[in-house]
Design brief:
- The structure is a single chain.
- It contains seven helices and ten strands.
- By secondary structure, it is of the alpha/beta class.
- The protein has a single domain, classed as TIM Barrel (Alpha-Beta Barrel), CATH 3.20.20.
- It has an eight-stranded parallel β-barrel, surrounded by four helices. A two-stranded antiparallel ribbon has the order 9-10.
- Strand 9 and strand 10 form a beta hairpin.
- Helix 1 runs parallel beside helix 7.
- The termini are close together.
């Protein structure tokens, strides 16, 4: 948890068991494992099973519905990172008995309607990805926060944390800014970011 609030800190793009263990031991609440074939951040079945065996909470990140497979039994959340609706949320919940993170893009002209639809479908967390980075769209984030308690993603840096914590978002989802290279975390960046988030 971050501060006295119930904000989840999710470290996403974990491809190596060692990075996942380090993130969790440093204080992350949740690890994101990407299941988009061909992505440099793709997490193998073996990595997912190993992290699950250590009782580390996992969110599988999917860019297509058809990619959700048997690995879902090792996941605590399924993150729908593609265009979807309330019916798809209900379908995935029914098929896999997991919590749902529904992602919307900040550039969506119908963003408020989309978040309302996610709410009606029973999504557990609404996550807005700020396409140009959180710091470039902080005012938009403030405005959205007035209507929904949502999570934030989109190249979040350590300098963004003060405002993010002040606005009490439901989740901070960070990935690229903590990497040494795509899919490989920088241990010091990750540790420093998590420490700042927790204080």
């Amino acid at each position: 948890m971050i501060g006295l609030h119930d904000t989840l800190l999710k470290i996403c793009g974990i491809t190596r068991e060692t990075d996942g263990i380090s993130a969790y031991e440093a204080g992350a609440d949740l690890l994101g494992v990407v299941r988009a074939p061909g992505s440099p951040r793709y997490a193998s079945d073996e990595t997912i099973r190993s992290l699950h065996a250590k009782r580390i909470p996992l969110a599988g990140v999917y860019t297509r519905l058809e990619d959700i497979g048997n690995e879902a039994e090792y996941l605590d959340y399924i993150q729908l990172h593609f265009r979807h609706n309330a019916d798809i949320i209900r379908l995935v919940k029914e098929m896999h008995s997991v919590r749902i993170i529904s992602v919307a893009l900040s550039t969506d002209p119908n963003l408020l309607d989309k978040l309302s639809e996610y709410q009606s479908g029973g999504a557990d967390i609404f996550l807005v990805e700020f396409a140009n980075g959180f710091s470039s769209d902080a005012e938009r984030a403030k405005s959205l926060r007035q209507d929904f308690r949502l999570g934030v993603a989109g190249y979040i840096k350590q300098g963004d944390l003060a405002l993010i914590k002040k606005l009490d978002f439901s989740m901070i989802d960070v990935s690229r800014s903590l990497e040494a290279s795509p899919g490989i975390k920088d241990p010091e960046k990750m540790k420093t970011f998590i420490m700042e988030a927790l204080n």
